[in-house]
């Protein structure tokens, strides 16, 4: 089992560029989440999904979009990158009681 | 809405000292889960413990112990005889049971253990 796989691990974007952070899990978990971590601020929920075809906003959704076409994949899309989106992004999944986190994507917007 | 408060931001101790990391939570649910995660300098999130709201027994795992008190809405974490390898950021988190199972994190405590 690979668990939760995030790609890329690092990325530098220019302001206004777009990109997709990939997240794949092979545990058949229904629930998936995207968090961002800023220094001293803990992890904040961006978007989550309770199953294929269902997504909802978390605490800090502005500037991001998600889709969930399959149980395995939960990509996070940044359309117009801004410096405020410089952060470490974590994807996580759960069957409902224990969480598995990916190793994170460190994104810098310059 | 649920909330997790980790009032301590940075703690520095000398190796072999005991250290307690505080966590206070707020929730309207009667059924919930509490977690502690460790984030070493390498950046990954390492699961340490999950506690069900119905289970108030304290837990010990090696040098780690957890004290859960519903009366004060606290879930404190103690490291006994700290070691340099314990240096990390520690997060307390809360999950309410329900359809979305979202985790709410505290801001984290940076623990530095000096040799």
Offer a quick outline of the entry.
Chain A has no helices and 11 strands. Chain A is mainly beta. Chain A is globular and about 35 Å long.
Topology:
The complex is a heterodimer of chains A (110) and B (115).
Chain A: E1 4-7, E2 10-13, E3 19-25, E4 31-37, E5 43-51, E6 54-57, E7 64-66, E8 76-78, E9 87-94, E10 100-101, E11 105-109
Parallel strand pairs in A: 2-11
Antiparallel strand pairs in A: 1-3, 3-8, 4-5, 4-9, 5-6, 7-8, 9-10, 9-11
Chain B: E1 3-5, E2 10-14, E3 19-21, E4 24-26, E5 32-39, E6 46-52, E7 59-61, E8 64-69, E9 74-79, E10 88-96, E11 103-105, E12 109-114
Parallel strand pairs in B: 2-12
Antiparallel strand pairs in B: 1-4, 3-9, 5-6, 5-10, 7-8, 8-9, 10-11, 10-12
Mean pLDDT of chain B: 93
Contiguous helical run count of chain B = 0
Largest interface, C-beta closer than 8 angstroms, per-chain residues: A-B, 25 and 22 residues
- Strand tally of chain B, please? 12
The assigned structural class of chain A equals mainly beta
Order of helices and strands of chain B: EEEEEEEEEEEE
Query: What profile does the largest beta sheet of chain B have?
Result: 6 strands, mixed
Q: N- to C-terminal separation of chain A?
A: 36 Å
- The radius of gyration computed from the alpha-carbon positions of chain A, rounded to a whole number of angstroms, is 13 Å
Main sheet: strands, sense, barrel of chain A: 7 strands, mixed
Our measurement of the CA-to-CA distance between the termini of chain B, rounded to an integer number of angstroms, reads 41 Å
Q: Indicate the overall shape of chain A.
A: globular
Task: Tell me the β content of chain A.
Answer: over 45%
3D shape of chain B: globular
Strand content of chain B: over 45%
């Amino acid at each position: 089992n690979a668990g939760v796989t995030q790609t890329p691990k690092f990325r530098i974007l220019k302001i206004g560029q777009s990109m997709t952070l990939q997240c794949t899990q092979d545990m058949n978990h229904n629930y998936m989440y995207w968090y961002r971590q800023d220094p001293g601020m803990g992890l904040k929920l961006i978007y989550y999904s309770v199953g294929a075809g269902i997504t909802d906003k978390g605490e800090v959704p502005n500037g991001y979009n998600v889709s969930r076409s399959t149980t395995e994949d939960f990509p996070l899309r940044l359309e117009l990158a801004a410096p405020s989106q410089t952060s470490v992004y974590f994807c996580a999944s759960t069957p409902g009681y224990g969480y598995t986190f990916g190793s994170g994507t460190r994104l810098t917007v310059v | 809405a649920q909330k997790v408060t980790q009032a301590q931001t940075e703690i520095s101790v000398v190796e072999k000292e005991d250290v307690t990391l505080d966590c206070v939570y707020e929730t309207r649910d009667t059924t919930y889960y509490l977690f502690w995660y460790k984030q070493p300098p390498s950046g990954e999130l390492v699961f340490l413990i999950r506690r069900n709201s119905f289970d108030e027994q304290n837990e010990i795992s090696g040098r780690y112990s957890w004290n859960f008190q519903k009366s004060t809405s606290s879930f404190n974490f103690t490291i006994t005889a700290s070691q340099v390898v314990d240096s990390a950021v520690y997060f307390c988190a809360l999950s309410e049971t329900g359809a979305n199972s979202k985790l709410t994190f505290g801001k984290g405590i940076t623990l530095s253990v000096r040799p």
